[in-house]
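Dear colleague,

Thank you for sharing your sequence with our group. We've completed the structure prediction you requested, and as agreed, I am returning the results in plain text so they can be pasted directly into your records. Please verify that the sequence below matches your submission; if there's any discrepancy, let me know and we will rerun it promptly.
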Amino acid sequence: MESKANQTSGRMDTLKWLVVFILVTVAVVGNTYYSAESLLYRVLAVVALAIVAGVIALQTSKGKRFAQLLKEARVEIRKVVWPTRQELTQTTLIVIVFVLVVALLLWGMDSLISWGVSGIIG
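Please find the predicted structure tokens below.
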């Protein structure tokens, strides 16, 4: 019995994704077809179609999993311990100094190799 429910759900998901694809296609083609119309109206129409397509997409099984992923990501972001301003400044200065040191080393090696090659070539 469960396999029939999965088949029906799968078919409905396919139908929903087809409707989403059609709505996005209508938005793109309509925006091109009505290019002479006001930009405001075209943007409003595309946004409205995108919202409807998004709502339909969220009703599918993949859409529900995506919504759950977003909720979990939001919870995880709240758990992040962000650096203080002092830590951020110190870390940034360390990175800048390191980049400058490496740049100077590369410049020095490049100059040395260039000097050596010019000496050989003459």
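Summary note from our side: The mean pLDDT is 92.

Kind regards,
the structure core
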